[in-house]
Write a structure and sequence with these properties.
Order of helices and strands: HHHHHHHHHH
Helix content: 55-70%
Number of helices: 10
Keywords: Electron transport, Heme, Iron, Metal-binding, Signal, Transport
Bound molecules: heme C
GO molecular function, one term: heme binding
Oligomer: single chain
Shape: globular
Strand content: under 5%
Pfam families: Cytochrom_C
Radius of gyration: 19 Å
Number of domains: 2
Structural class: mainly alpha
Largest sheet: none
Protein name: Cytochrome c domain-containing protein
Number of strands: 0
Distance between the termini: 34 Å
């Protein structure tokens, strides 16, 4: 290892530790959420809880109200939704206000961290070194959102890209969501969660209530996706945005 690389690696570790420290120091109101959503609220497959750290305030508020109003998490088949509904019912409006403010704060710290990791990854990829793979592994383990394009089959991606054209009208070509149409960001969510929600809309477990106009809109879109393969394709493409 030459001196510059050692220095670069040290910098990665120090800055990541500092940033993750500020992200990990969760407030008491958010601790209960972290039981299922993960220590940094970035999602947990075991509890089937999505990433809520990156969600905008308007969407968190809207979904918590949806759970409270039986628009979401009220169907017998929807076990995960039911769990979340129980939590939502225990929250007052004041609680919700506190939570969204604190998550917005986390969100800021997290964006800085991701941006930083992406920059470092780009710099390292440009260097030709025999240790590139080892460094890549290290950076991957630090980053949460680095995508390995090479591992994705191209036909799946091109089908996904075609399908995503209609999604981008609401979720944006960057997948970061658009508040005007109440469409949430999708890029940060794990694939298992995105697939599950599309299946939920299709199965009438979500987006079924006549007053839930946003949910109903998404249901009619989801019902237009013809096969599980197409769901896999569009979800895979979303992860490359
Ligand atoms: C007992 C486990 C559990 C706890 C505790 C919990 N959640 Fe959840 N949460 C879930 C699960 C599971 C889902 C996905 C449910 C579904 O499929 O509808 C979810 C979904 C959500 C969603 C919807 C996200 C989206 O992308 O639509 C929000 C918002 C949310 N939780 C916020 C919170 C907040 C805020 C707290 C803390 C006050 C919290 N959750 C605590 C399990 C939990
Ligand atoms: C007409 C606007 C519109 C279009 C087009 C659209 N969506 Fe949505 N989408 C929404 C809205 C609004 C919501 C929130 C609905 C709710 O409250 O349940 C949503 C929610 C979602 C969710 C749930 C996210 C979460 O965090 O729980 C997924 C997944 C999703 N959309 C995927 C897609 C995909 C894939 C496409 C394209 C095939 C698509 N959407 C097209 C408006 C749209």
């Amino acid at each position: 290892m030459n001196g510059r690389r050692i220095l670069a690696n040290c910098l990665i570790v120090v800055v990541s530790t500092l940033l993750s420290f500020s992200v990990a120091a969760l407030d008491r109101d958010l601790l209960v959420c972290s039981v299922c959503h993960g220590a940094d609220l970035q999602g947990n497959k075991n509890t089937e809880a999505p990433n809520i750290a990156v969600l905008p305030s308007w969407y968190i508020r809207q979904q918590l109200h949806s759970y409270q109003r039986e628009w979401r998490g009220a169907k017998v088949k929807d076990k995960s939704g039911q769990e979340m509904r129980t939590i939502a019912l225990s929250l007052t409006d004041e609680h919700i206000q506190n939570i969204v403010e604190k998550i917005a704060h986390l969100n800021d710290a997290m964006n800085k961290k991701t941006l930083y990791e992406k920059t470092i990854h780009k710099e390292i990829s440009h260097k030709e070194t025999s240790h590139k793979e080892a460094i890549d592994e290290e950076v991957k383990s630090l980053a949460t959102n680095i995508k390995s394009f090479n591992e994705m089959p191209t036909d799946l991606l091109s089908q996904g890209k075609k399908l995503y054209q209609q999604c981008s009208a609401c979720h944006g070509s960057d997948g970061l969501g658009r508040e005007v149409v109440k469409a949430p960001p999708l890029v940060h969510q794990p694939m298992w969660y995105l697939k599950k929600q599309l299946n939920n809309y299709q199965a009438g477990i979500r987006g079924y209530h006549e007053q839930d106009s946003s949910g109903q809109q998404m249901t009619s879109i989801a019902q237009g996706i013809r096969s599980q393969d197409d769901i896999d394709a569009v979800v895979t493409f979303i992860k490359t945005l």
